[in-house]
Amino acid sequence: MQATLYDYQRYCAEFIKKVPRCGLFLDVGLGKTLITLTAFVELAQQNRLQGHVLVIAPKRIAINTWPDEITKWDHTKHGRYTQLSGLSKKKRDEALDRVATDPPTIYIINRELIPKLVKRFPGESWPFLNVVIDEAQSFKGYSTNGFKALQSIAPYTMRWIELTGTPSPNGLLDIWALIHLLDGGQRLGRNITEYRNRHFVPGRRTPEGYPYEWLLIEGHDRFIHHAIKDVAISMMKKDYLNLPPVTHNVIELEMTKQEREIYNQLKKEKVLPLIDGGAIEAANAAVLSGALLQLSNGAIYADEDRKQVIELHDHKLKALEEIVEGSNGQPILCFYWFKHDVIRLEKYFPNAEVFTGDPEQLKRWNNKEIPLLFAHPASAGHGLNFQYGGHILVFFVVPTSLELYLQSIGRLDRNGQTEPVIVHYLKMRGTVEDRVISTLLDKKVVQQELIDAVKAEIGTMQGVTA
Q1: Residue 410 contacts residue 30 (beta carbons within 8 Å)
Q2: Which residues, including other chains, have CB under 8 Å from residue 358's CB and lie 6 or more apart?
Q3: Which CATH superfamily is domain 243-253+315-429 in?
C-alpha cells in the first residue's frame, strides 16, 4: 500500500530527521508509527542513519502494531525487522546473539524486557544507536527499574524518539522523566529534586510530615513549556483530521434506598458487616475509594484473596442491555475495570466476547463479526486499531487514569473512523464516580495546557504522497 502523508505528518517526519533527540506528543490516531518509520527510512536512504533501531512499546503494540505497519506500506515493507516480543527466552537470546553481525535492523521489544536488555548490553556495549519509545509516558516513573535502565544507556545513543499522546497524565511532574531521557537534565534539571524545588511547592503531607502532593508555582508552567519547546512538538487530531464528531452521553443511574444505605455505611464507617459474621474493611483512603467504586459498579470483593464476590445491584448491566438493544445491531466496545465486572458481564451477555489481544480476534472485530466486545483499558487502551469495527463505546466504569481514559476513546476516535463516535458513561449518581470524572477533567486541563504550549504551527494541512 502506498502511504499518503498529510502535511502535519510530513512536518513531524522532518522534525525527527532534524532533531535527533525529540518528543512527538501527538494525539491518538495521528499516525505516530507511520511518521516515525518514514523518517527512519528517509534517513537511511540519505545515509544519515547509523546502526540498529530499537523500538520499545507495550507488548500488544510491539507484537501487533509495529510489524503490521512495517509490512503495510510500500516504502517500509522491505526494511529488516526482528521481533523480540512474544519469543521464548532461548529464541530471544539467539536473536540478540546476532546483533553484532546483523546489518542495520529494527528490533522490536516490549517495555517489560528493557531492564533485562540493558543488563545484557550495559553502558558502552549498548548496540542500539537509535531508540524509539512508543507510549513513552509509561516511563514517567523516575524511580522505576525501567526508567533507570533507559537512563543508564541514553548517553550511548545517537537518536532518541519519544512518542506519546499523554505526556503528562497526572500533571507537569510527569514530564521531567521524559525530558531527562532526551537531554540528560539540561532543560528541566539533573534530578527530580532539582526540578521540584525549582517549580513546585509541597501540598498535602502525611501524618509524619512528608509531602505526597506537589503544587505547581503559579506561572511556572510557562517556564516549563518554553524550556522544552525546541525538542518537543504536539498536535491534537481535532486540529488536523476531519473526523466524525464524538458524542459523550453520561447515563445517570440511581441506587435503591437500601443499596444507598449499604454504600453510605461503608463510606462513613469504612467497615461493611457481612451476613456470615465477617466484614469488608477499608484500611485507608485508597482502599476505601476502590471499594466504593466497586459498589458503584454493583459488586465488591469480600475477601483479600478476591475469590469471593458479593453482588449489590445490576443497574449497570441493565443499562448496558438497553444500549445493546437500542444499537440496532451495531457493534459495541465496552470497557470494564474489575475482574468481577467481566465475570458478571460474560454471564449476563453470553454471546459477547472478551478481548484477548489475539490478532485474529481483532480482525474479526474490525470485520464487524463481534456484536459486543469487552476489553480492559490496560490491555486494549494503547495503539490498537478498533475504529473499523464500530463507533459505539461504553465505559462500564470510567478508568481512574487519564492516560487510559483518553487512550480508550482513541481506539474508535482515530483516523479511519467513518461514523460519529458515541461514548456512553454508566455512572452511579452521588457516588465516588462523580469525583473520578471531575479529577480526570482537571488533569486533562493541565495536560492540554502543556500540549497547547508546544503545538507546532504548520498552517493548513493537506495530503501529500510519500
Answers
A1: no
A2: none
A3: P-loop containing nucleotide triphosphate hydrolases (3.40.50.300)
* In contact, 343 and 297? CB cutoff 8 Å: no
* DSSP letters for 321-387: HHHHHHTTT--EEEE--SHHHHHHHHHH-TT-EE----HHHHHHHHTT--SEEEE-HHHHSSS---T
pLDDT in tens, 426-445: 999 888 888 888 887 777 77
Whole-number Å distance between alpha carbons of 337 and 13: 36
Between CA 168 and CA 446, with CA 237 as vertex, the angle to 5 degrees is 25
pLDDT, residue 310, reads: 85
Q: What is the pTM of this model?
A: 0.70
3-state SS of 375-436? ECHHHHCCCCCCCCCCCEEEECCCCCCHHHHHHHHCCCCCCCCCCCEEEEEEEECCCHHHHH
Q: Is 207 exposed, middle or buried (0-12, 13-18, 19+ CB in 10 A)?
A: exposed
**In this structure, are residues 164 and 158 in contact, taking their beta carbons and an 8 Å threshold?**
no
* Paired residues of 91 in beta bridges: none
Report in angstroms the alpha-carbon separations of 7 from 162, 235, 303, 436, 458. 20, 12, 55, 38, 8
Low-confidence ranges of the chain (pLDDT < 70): 270-286, 303, 305, 381-383, 454-466
| Count of beta carbons in the 10 Å neighbourhood of residue 285 | 9
Q: Residue length, the chain?
A: 466
Separation of alpha carbons 466 and 448, rounded Å: 30
167 exposure class (CB count in 10 Å sphere: 0-12, 13-18, 19+): buried
CATH classification code of 4-240+451-465: 3.40.50.10810
Q: Which three cell numbers stand for residue 40?
A: 527512519
CATH 3.40.50.10810 domain position(s) in the chain: 4-240+451-465
In the chain, CATH 3.40.50.300 sits at 243-253+315-429
Distance from C-alpha of 43 to C-alpha of 75, rounded to nearest angstrom = 13
